Amino acid sequence: MDRDGGHAVEQRRRSDSVDLPLVLSQLDATDPETRLDAVRRVRDGIDDEPSAYTPTVPKLRELLAEPGFELREAVAYSLAELAVEAPSDVAPSADAIVAAAVDDERTPATRELLRSLAAVAEERPTAVAEHVPAIVDVTRARDGDVRGIRTLAHVARARPEALEPALPLLTETVAPEPDDGAVSALSALGRLGRSEADLSSLAFVDHAVDLADCDDPKLRRNAVGCLADVAHRRPEAVEPVCRRIRPALESDDPETRANAAVTFGRVAAAEPSVVEPVRSRLFALLEDDHPYVRASACTALGHGNVTEARERLSTLATGDPESTVRDRAAWACGKLS
């Protein structure tokens, strides 16, 4: 415990040192040097106390719109930091941020603008959804900038259908040599795949399968999760590749095991025979330490009409400590009766 209140005193001193009315008036000044000094002050102080500078967002947005403003990168950095601190306060500036990024796609300032959009989209995805085509263009111009891919992935959580224009870019991101944004791209593609969007291509399914046994655990997990999502609405697209994801049922990572079981279950809902080659492994997963894995195995066995699992499923339906597992096991028993 800080007995003399040192931390609180220091916080108060820093807050008192921010002369916000002065900063706001300088940002609004007609003299260019005064505005530049104000931007430098915000840029220098924002790392220590970003919340104190939240009221500067509208002024920074105006400066961002000025063609050739000398400290555009400092303005963009400050907006990105404020978006991380207070995304709802920066969300109304999304239009201006996107417009500035489109105007000058390749500059370091645009990197920070994409970071702003990613932070806003994480909290307020609908504020960015209408700008997907522009974000795709900027991200592509920046060689698949991971910040742009993350922004698209956040939008996919609330408006997956809005990502239709992003399908080619996201597919390229998870291609045989995946980019840095592949983990986020797989998440976005999965949500797009299970949406009602009219997809022009499902080429990404093959790429996801290729990544289902890669060395990177996050890529593996999201690749199998992507396939599970696609199988929710388009099981026929995943059924031909199920044999290639059988090893995922034995992964060291429980989420990957669960995702694989979900994939088999969703495909089996349309084609029960897909479970036949992995029925013994799914049966073994009923003993898994992780509830989500057990529950997913129950569903797959039920859809796969694995009647010899009925007795074990009946036991789980009444005796498993997790309610989700009990519910899934009971459903599977009913399916198999």
Assembly state here? single chain
Quick check: average pLDDT? 93
Low-confidence stretches at least 5 residues in length (pLDDT < 50)? Answer: 1-15
Biggest sheet character: none
- Beta-strand residue percentage: under 5%
The ordered H/E elements are HHHHHHHHHHHHHHHHHHHH
Structural class: mainly alpha
| Percentage of residues assigned to helices | 55-70%
From the N-terminal CA to the C-terminal CA, the straight-line distance is: 62 Å
Overall radius of gyration: 25 Å
Q: Helical stretch count?
A: 20
DSSP E strands, number: 0
Cα shape: elongated
Q: What is this structure, in a nutshell?
A:
By secondary structure, the protein is mainly α. The protein contains 20 helices and no strands. It is elongated and about 80 Å long.
